[in-house]
Amino acid sequence: MDTLTRRRFLLASGVTGATALAGGAAALAWSDLHKAAAADPLPPGEGIVVLLTLYGGNDGLNTLVPATDGAYQKARPDLAYQPHEVLDVGDALGLNPAMTALHDLWRGGKVAIVRGVGYPRPNHSHFVSMDIWQTASPSEPGTSGWLGRWLDAQPDDRMRALRAVSLGGVLPPLLAGTKTAGSALPLGRFALPRGTTGSALKALGASSAQDCPNAAYAARDTADLFTVSAAFSPILADASTAAGGDGNASPGAAKPGTGPGGKNAKRAAGNALARQLDIVAACIESSVPTRVYAVSLGGFDTHSAEKGTQSALLKQVSDAIGAFQQRIGAGARGKDVVLVAYSEFGRRVAANANDGTDHGTAGPVFVVGESVRGGFVGEQPSLTDLDNGDLKFHTDFRSVYATVLDRVLGTDPASVLGGPFPALSFL
């Protein structure tokens, strides 16, 4: 049960305050959800955000590559890609050679690349920088996530536990609000105890007028476990069956090389991120009332032997996004879904002595979807006008968030971000 308990992850993440432990959803059976979706499904046009976190600090310069720039070649004599190796996207830039599926989407006008994204007074610590990105609070430590604050403002009803879901056993701080929090959905089979133990656990989620506030929060959080289990267990059980019991596929997922995913589905076979996005796609197709999904991939802390490691990771990212977008784009909700991929920082311009790169600052953010206005947003950072060896950022990451909040989630960005930030042109 520990892997399902959101309180544990909230406390471990540093997101504090007893009110952040509140859940508030009542137990709900899958049959109830199915009937509700059939009678009153999430209306077409209700936006859905899929937020992809690349943990470790992805090297933006070897992702969106200025291969013809002499300063790039000089700074990375053994790590640089040559102009003929990269996938041309114009403006003297190219995608990493492994990102063929994303390049296909770029040519189809379904990808926007926001260049030079960062924040003032950048921090090179993984923990601090990721905390800044997830709380949207560069100037002081945040105690709630930016999407958690969005969740706080949603109706306090039985669906609240399902409105924001993270794929994987840990709830990221970005989904923790001050009054409530999203749900963590472990991959593979998702089931709570049955029999006497299950009945006793369910009884712990029953509310009582005699409960003190902390006891009420704990009860509501326990009830959320049953809500999430009822909603997602059938999807994850089907995934496990489809994968021969290992939970690595999802219901309705195309077999490699077939169905809506086509060649991109084949590329994504065996890809851990693709499995997460397959489950997200199945949930969207099943009209599960979730409007925010958080998925992730780690391993981008490439201090040594970067080229091969990052290339393999970027192939996973590209193939997974390609298969997801082809599947979702072919469905009824294609124009409602927007995927945003980011990392906590980029890397230094110059390579280190171990054929890798060290912690840096600004990097690109990728936005993918049928409704996305494809192309570049923002300036490409200079490789000669540096801040102590680091790229200077041109676009505040909170402008990316403001655009998503306004144009996908239909929320006043200032109420979530604590002030106005200019919207960007990718939507």
From TrEMBL:
<feature type="region of interest" description="Disordered">
    <location>
        <begin position="242"/>
        <end position="267"/>
    </location>
</feature>
<feature type="signal peptide">
    <location>
        <begin position="1"/>
        <end position="22"/>
    </location>
</feature>
<keyword id="KW-0732">Signal</keyword>
<protein>
    <submittedName>
        <fullName>DUF1501 domain-containing protein</fullName>
    </submittedName>
</protein>
<dbReference type="InterPro" id="IPR006311">
    <property type="entry name" value="TAT_signal"/>
</dbReference>
<dbReference type="InterPro" id="IPR010869">
    <property type="entry name" value="DUF1501"/>
</dbReference>
<dbReference type="Pfam" id="PF07394">
    <property type="entry name" value="DUF1501"/>
</dbReference>
